[in-house]
Amino acid sequence: MAYVKQIIGIFLLVIVICGGPLMLTTVKEEVVFAPEEVVTRAIYLVQQIAGGSLGTYYLGDYERSIAEDIVPFAISTFELLFSSVVIAVLAGLLFGMFLQRFWIVRKFQRLLDLVSTIPDFILIFLSILAAVGFYKVTSIRIITLSPTSDAANKWFPIVLLSIGPTIFLLKVISLKYVQIGGEDYIKTALAKGMGIWHVLTHHVYKNIKPFLLADLKKTIAITVANLFVVEYLLNVVGLTRFIFSKSSMYQFNAAVMGLMGIILLSILVYLLIRAILYLFERILVYK
Amino acid sequence: MQKRFNWPLWTGCVLVTLLLLLGITGPYLAPYDLDFQEKLSSTVVNGKTVITYPPLPPSAEHLLGTDKWGYDLLTLLLHGAPYTVFVTLAIAFIRVFIGTIMGLYIGIQEKTQTWWLSVENAWSYMPIFIPVYFLLAGVTINSELPTSSLVALFIGVVAILGTPSVTASIRQKTEQIKETQYVLAATSLGAGREQIIFRHILPQLKEQIVIILVTEIIAIMTLMGLLGMFDLFVGGTYMTTDPVIYKSITNEWAGLLGSYRSFVYGNAIWIFLSPLVAFVVAVGSFTLLAKGLRDQFEQSYNRTPFI
């Protein structure tokens, strides 16, 4: 029951947020606040959902059914989101914790620190520039901007999307690693002659885990923020297409469905990552 | 142990000072008027007539070149500088001021404020640019409001929507300090709530607040850049409908970057690179400052891991 309540709460929040452009408008030289418009639209939306359809939206000049498009869009967004977060968690744990003790990894982190001075969305831009330059020099194509392109080019948006969360998570984990590494119980464990792998999995990992889980939601939030940019700039056809359309005006129905879909997907990704971490613990830590 | 010279702090300080100076004097330093437009012109070179037309690449007359419509990029950037610098600063100060006060008063409460915790929780998972975009999209594009009120509206919306994160970190710190012995001693000596907040807790938070201020500035600049990607510019977006072109009214840097983003694919790459470099330098100098400050404050707590 509590989950149903939460879902309804999220739905209401999404309606309020998506109603923003309808609520706040300008007429002549005044800002007009008109929440009633959102209420009527929301009621209409709920009626449509109750009637078994999700309504229609305009993609360019064509009117299309949301229900027909939402599944393939959601699948491509999910692939992007899930793979990027998995890459971020893997890279974070690997370089932030297990390999942190090698100097070359620490040097690599210093480099990444330097890179993280630049905001994520600019890094995405620079990567596009680099990919175009790379194509000009070597004529190897690693980037396609056509939305109907073959699936072989999926990895490029995934890599771009994983830059932001990886930098964030790596920073969090290595900070905690340095803190926990200086604790007395680590010293004791080492003094007892326990192997480094044992200390890492049983003492360090277990103490990093709560922080990792706490920051996992934040990681996903960062990924979602970057998702908008990646899908928009690289013409990936995904759920954000419902919200920011390049060729048509803002559409309330589609925006609500898109945002709701993204939120539900990020919850799904969160649960899946938790499951993966649980499996990792069962298989590698406790054997 | 000899203290190492804190390079990030000093470079950051110098760059931020330069940026502030640029923000104040920018419009006066601009080589051309804001509405100066380079037109089609022809010159005779070696007996042949050569037609030059914008976009003009960087040259002695136009240090950063001109954009597709013949506007001098350096002039645009210098006129936009005050908006970039001072809008960001204003938002950051408002956020930190309100956030600190709220955080202190919520943190000092005996009982944990569950309503606030749920607000904090829900808000931290929402990429902030989504609500900001939706709230401002209806107002900013082709608005009849004067630029000043659009800027004020932007400052207000972004400041208020960003306050919960500042409140969260101040609240957590306050809750930690609240449990210390000297606060207990002060309470038993009869200190009131305000006394404890302003005499005993706030002084402990000074360094923290400075760091939060600088990190908020970085976050706000990034947010402005992101909004620029979706054609929502500080101080208003001017949109032409055929062809659809979005232009920043204030020429604020993130806005210029957003409106020139399509030139990333063309040959006139300088149109995109000039605002990009300006924006990255602005964000980078604050990032350096934040890193320097953090290093400075954390030096005394530094521990080396055993493994």
TrEMBL record, chain B:
Keyword Zinc: no
Single GO cellular component term: plasma membrane
Transmembrane segments annotated in the record for this chain: 7-30, 83-108, 115-136, 148-170, 209-230, 268-290
Domain ABC transmembrane type-1, residue spans: 85-282
Main location: membrane
Membrane topology qualifier: Multi-pass membrane protein
GO BP: any one term: transmembrane transport
PROSITE patterns with a match to the protein in the record: ABC_TM1
SUPFAM superfamilies attached to this UniProt entry: MetI-like (SSF161098)
Top-level lineage group: Bacteria
Compartments (UniProt record): Cell membrane; Membrane
Record keywords, A-Z: Membrane, Transmembrane, Transmembrane helix, Transport
Name of the protein this chain belongs to: ABC transporter permease
Organism: Brevibacillus panacihumi
